[in-house]
């Protein structure tokens, strides 16, 4: 994947990395390196991510809205300004309770 040349060296509010799209989950890869990834997501109300697991720990930084993020069957309510670490290989999902934006940082080992 090509670098986001428009982002490098240019300040940008985190909330502006992605826009909402009716009936969709929008994602934008901000950084894609062998060492890890940073991806911005915008979830329209009623959209989400079904349960899955990842091979690496992932850090969610909530930019806007609220969501329930169950990890290993335990629900966690997150809101703007919160962060949540989702451990590797543990099933998790994202269930927005409103329009919801988050930044996902995944560090590969």
UniProtKB/TrEMBL annotation:
<protein>
    <submittedName>
        <fullName>Cupin 2, conserved barrel domain protein</fullName>
    </submittedName>
</protein>
<dbReference type="InterPro" id="IPR014710">
    <property type="entry name" value="RmlC-like_jellyroll"/>
</dbReference>
<dbReference type="InterPro" id="IPR011051">
    <property type="entry name" value="RmlC_Cupin_sf"/>
</dbReference>
<feature type="domain" description="Cupin type-2">
    <location>
        <begin position="42"/>
        <end position="105"/>
    </location>
</feature>
<dbReference type="InterPro" id="IPR013096">
    <property type="entry name" value="Cupin_2"/>
</dbReference>
<dbReference type="Pfam" id="PF07883">
    <property type="entry name" value="Cupin_2"/>
</dbReference>
């Amino acid at each position: 994947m090509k670098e986001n040349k428009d982002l490098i060296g240019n300040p940008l509010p985190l909330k502006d990395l992605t826009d909402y799209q009716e009936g969709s989950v929008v994602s934008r890869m901000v950084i894609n390196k062998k060492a890890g990834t940073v991806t911005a997501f915008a979830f329209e109300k009623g959209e989400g991510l079904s349960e899955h697991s990842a091979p690496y720990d992932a850090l969610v930084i909530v930019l806007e809205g609220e969501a329930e993020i169950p990890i290993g069957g335990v629900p966690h309510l997150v809101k703007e300004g919160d962060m949540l670490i989702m451990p590797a290989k543990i099933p998790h999902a994202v269930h927005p309770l409103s329009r919801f934006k988050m930044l996902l940082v995944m560090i590969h080992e």
